[in-house]
What we know:
Layout: H1 3-27, E1 31-34, E2 46-50, H2 57-64, E3 69-74, H3 82-90, E4 93-95, H4 99-111, E5 115-118, H5 135-143, E6 146-153, E7 161-165, H6 176-188
Parallel strand pairs: 1-7, 2-5, 2-6, 3-4, 3-5
Antiparallel strand pairs: 6-7
Amino acid sequence: MSNKIRRYFYVLLRALCLKPLSLWFRCNASFAVLNGQNLPQKNRPVIVYSNHQQFIDTLYFAIAMKPRFSLIGANIKYAKHRLMRLVMNVLFIGFYHDDQQFKRDCSRVLHQGRVLLLYPEMGRNPQSIGDFKPLAAEVALANKALLIPCYIHYPKFSKHCELIVGEGFLPEGYDVTHLNQLMREKIIALIPKENE
């Protein structure tokens, strides 16, 4: 199977899987998007970034965002399992090999005019939000990409999930250290009071 045919297959499979899931989540009121108008409505070179609490976070983004996005940075250990590789391919998730490859993969997605989803912590943090590694800030600066902060919120004692979307901003005028700090502060500002 050629790469082009394989890609079309994954696009079709993604659409067939996500439509019923989206309806189920919304009908059961278990998922809500706040300020969803801030999310990109079509494919464009933009970075959507978020905290990362649970494995299912990326599925919520797939349901919330109309344009197809790519995520770069999944743990390479998931590539060992055939079923996990299929899930990753359907959701257009790329694996993390090393810092330089990560930045090249991110730049390729952005130069193709697509939406890029990143978790700057570069790993899951069930405690809400941890320290950011500078890789996402480096990618944003190198590509002058619009940044849209998001916060995945799991209220205590509830199966409900909220995706809280902030306003986009450009990385102009910052160095990596200060942009990395600002990106984290933008997400912290989205955290609901009861979760601080």
